[in-house]
Specification:
Order of helices and strands: HHEEH
Radius of gyration: 16 Å
Strand content: 15-25%
Strand order of the largest sheet: 1-2
Structural class: alpha+beta
Largest sheet: 2 strands, antiparallel
Shape: elongated
Distance between the termini: 20 Å
Length: 91
Amino acid sequence: MSAPVKSCSLDPVRTFQIHEFVDLLLPFITKMVNTSLAQGRLSTSQKHAIVTPLLNKPGLDTSDMGNYRPVSNLSFMSKLVEWAVASQLND
């Protein structure tokens, strides 16, 4: 519930809808996260990202690709698995 209400176009369900129906969806989300952790990998459907190039600093030459950095937008489920792994490693 503490997750931000941001969504990515890769998400089949928007985050605000997950928050709204969390009681119904939580068993399925828990199963997906636990399965990923048990197998040590993400499912194929979660291995996608939308990469957007962002200019490092305003005013840099936009024609030089070296002035950009890639920013990856991941699906909500990928972020949940990432958070679960980080939480376990920090404990």
